[in-house]
Amino acid sequence: MSASEVIEWQKSSFSGGGGENCVELAQYDGSILMRESDDPGAIITTSRENLRAFLLGVKAGEFDHLIE
Known about the structure:
By secondary structure, this protein is α+β, with helices and mostly antiparallel strands. The protein has one domain (10-60). The protein has one helix spanning 48-59; strands at 10-11, 23-28, 31-36, 39-46.
């Protein structure tokens, strides 16, 4: 990833109004990038398959105990 490349980050509509409390996602070179808006330099790279498995787990409530 070069400094001249523009990555279009997307965040949830459920994020805080100021945009400082959110996880942002982007597509890049066949991978999915994830970062927190308050630390945009720390980027995690994952695959579409791994993100799909995670989102299915979220939808199924498997991680609800982490936010209660």
